[in-house]
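Recap from last week: sequence in, structure out.
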Amino acid sequence: MTGAHRLHHLTDDELSVLAVGQMPDAWGALAEAEAMPPAFVARRALATPCSSYLVLRIGDGRVVGACGFKSAPRLGRVDIGYGIAPAGRGAGAATDAVRLLAQIARSDGLLELMAEILPDNAASARVVGKLGFEARARRIDDDGDEVVQWVLALTPAR
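Predicted structure tokens:
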């Protein structure tokens, strides 16, 4: 199922509430368990020029996950992150979220997207693989975990 999800750009007010571990009033009744971004993600989004989004299921408006750009673009590349709540998995939410992030990046004139994925996260590897990302280098991230860098070359928006 593709195209069954849309993104809601989180405002600074919403991020400020999330940054202290609380739920923005507008989303509390609509969020699946574990769908909202963790406080550290909200704090990062407030501290850097990046964008964060909620992943909404179109049919019922439920929040099934979050995604976004992890930092400001650098040399035409931007890093992405995404997470889908257990109740939203298996319905194309991650694929839709990453596809929509690619459309935003493309329209902003960026050249590449990068997603860093743990080697044992087969579901995320399948998502980015089917969207055309290519596995590149492995590195140790800031948490000390080995990750695979998946890169998508973006074609210019028309």
